[in-house]
Write the structure tokens for this entry.
Amino acid sequence: MKSNLLKIIASFTFVVLSVFAANAQSNNNKNKVQNGEQTNDSPLKIIEKQPPSAKVFGDCFRQNGTAYIKIAVRVTFDKSGKITAVEIVKESDCSEFDEESLRVARRIKFKPATKDGEPITVTKTVVYEGGIR
């Protein structure tokens, strides 16, 4: 009788410890995913972003006397790997620079962001700027 009781207690202890061990491993995996260590998510990666042409900047400087130009452009980076929309968020003081910035923004080369291993569409603000030092 005593040996049966010991076997039951030993079996129960084994089951309880197994459950705790499995739960601890599961929580450890969840923490890794939350910390970005073990996930299929990745951010958008810009591979090539050309600046607006120096000629356009020079033209703006000669026409307006502008020594520093900055523009913010909202760009939609589609999951297909193409730019699908560009729009000015904050204009510069030179319309030619603004137009040139939109043109080069449409040519940005990038690797789409992913969520759960699948490409996703992301919209980000891209800044173009230049100046005379």
User: Anything to note?
Assistant: Residues 4-32 have pLDDT under 50 and may be disordered.
